[in-house]
Amino acid sequence: MKHALEDITILDFGQWIAGPVGARLCSDLGARVIKLEPLEGEPGRPQHDRLDAFTKTFQQGSAGKEAISVDLKSPEGLAIAHQLMERSDVVLNNFRPGVAERLGVDYVAAKKLNPKVIYASCPGYGSTGPRRDYPGFEPLYSAFAGVHRNSGGEGNPPSRATSFDQFCGLLGANAILMALYNRDITGEGQLVEIAQLAQVLYYTSEAHFDAQGNKLADAMLDPDQTGYGPLDRLFQTLDDWICISCWEQKDWETLCSVLQMEELTKDTRFADLDLRVENGTDLANILAERFITKTTLEWTRLFEETDLPFEVPTMDGEDQALFNADYMDSGLIAEYEHPVWGLMRAPGFGVGLSSTPGVNQGPPPLLGQHTREILSELGYSAEQVEGLKDKGVVVWSDVN
């Protein structure tokens, strides 16, 4: 095969980010993904053909998919969904528990139509437990798992961290791949559940225990929210900031040399890593006084002559990536023409496969953009398709 999943079809009922991203990652591997939306479009779809935050979110979850827009509450619309479920290798949704059953597109219905189907469900708090029926949305899971509290920094109030919905999509794609592998071996499909809460629990999995079973304290962000220790943090320079991560002994010695502070390597307070952590506040203050004496560019030039792990925090990192020719060549950045937004660049496929590389299958689709083509594949005549539209069962957007 040219691409790893080119013989796989996925029917995607997902909305917003957590569900759709999993299917989008499979599309990057060559799968055909059919996005089934209600007549008005899924909630995360940009409604006014404008470039804004919703556009970016929707693009990330829906690039490379085909789109069909169907009223599942009508008998004709449900029949269309069932035909697609019958023909699909994977069915995916991130509905709240009970919604798929009410719509008639749940795992039981899918399995009757297609015994080998892999049905991937991404409920918020999972399908069991006391929070099963709670409405779920990031940042609620982050708050529940303590991420906001940790993000605030020691002694500070909670602070909103980034959204973790994409991580749920990553877990979902991995679960689908595992289920496909199992089906190749056993010939059997299965129900796969990826609770959205699990994405955040993975993030907080640094919790650990000592040999006696005592829970050890997690690394705590410092009160200034600059890092987790004197050598793993941001430092203010004369004009901006710089970030270092120098845990290894060789990096510590190199850092002291570049800073022209070799005496620190002989200071008993910082003789080894444990002491540097124990006396972290003292060390951070000493280093801060040194970093503030030069500009970020001056420090960058000095650090680039060594092998020190460092980076300059930028406000336009995304823009730099989008216009990097090397990233374009490697596929990390994808480029395509959108019928409304024109030329677009966005994150592409981030995994290198030498024999079955990833594929850029195009931009996110317009609402119902492929409705007519998909219905034709299912055997509907042109007259029947127009009749379904006139009846309000389906809609589509024409591409100029």
Describe this structure in a few short sentences.
This protein is 38% helix and 15% strand. By secondary structure, the chain is of the alpha/beta class.
Describe this structure in words.
The longest helix has 22 residues, at 165-186. Helix content is 38%, strand content 15%. The protein is an alpha/beta fold and 400 residues long. The strands form 4 sheets. A 7-stranded mixed β-sheet has the order 6-5-4-1-2-3-15, sandwiched between helices. It has 2 domains: 9-202 and 319-395, Crotonobetainyl-coa:carnitine coa-transferase, domain 1 (Rossmann fold); 227-236 and 241-311, formyl-coa transferase, domain 3. A hairpin with a 2-residue loop joins β9 and β10 (232-236).
What keyword list fits this structure?
400 residues, alpha/beta, Rossmann fold, formyl-coa transferase, domain 3, 7-stranded mixed beta sheet, 4-stranded antiparallel beta sheet, 17 helices, 15% strand
Mean pLDDT: 91
CATH superfamily of the largest domain: Crotonobetainyl-coa:carnitine coa-transferase, domain 1
Largest sheet: 7 strands, mixed
Which spans have pLDDT < 50 for at least 5 consecutive residues? Answer: none
Radius of gyration: 25 Å
Kindly report the CATH topology of the largest domain.
Answer: Rossmann fold
Instruction: Walk across the major sheet and give the strand order.
Output: 6-5-4-1-2-3-15
Taken as a percent bin, the fraction of beta residues is: 15-25%
Number of domains: 2
What is the 3D shape? elongated
Structural class: alpha/beta
CATH class of the largest domain: Alpha Beta
